[in-house]
Design brief:
single chain; 82 residues; mainly alpha; two-stranded antiparallel ribbon
């Protein structure tokens, strides 16, 4: 499916399943895990390298915040993997 995007809930669930693969973990994603994923995304988005004399060789923020306040961000497969 080219250009498929996923919501943060789908991303959290996929990450949780990959980290708990082979273990007897709850099917529900714990709130603490969701909070950590959200904080990592916030840190990624808030990093500002504009003042550096040498820019990073890659784009440092994979997911741009949604255009509207309260809207859900869309994550590409590469974003989820990273």
């Amino acid at each position: 499916m080219p250009n498929a995007t996923y919501g943060r809930g789908q991303t959290e669930w996929a990450l949780w399943k990959s980290f708990t693969f082979g273990r007897s973990a709850s099917g529900e994603v714990p709130k603490v895990f969701k909070t950590r994923v959200k904080r990592l995304l916030d840190v990624d988005r808030d990093s500002d390298f504009a003042d550096l004399s040498v820019q990073p060789p890659v784009r440092w923020s994979f997911v741009a915040p949604p255009e509207e306040v309260g809207a859900e961000a869309a994550y590409a497969e590469a974003d989820v993997f990273c």
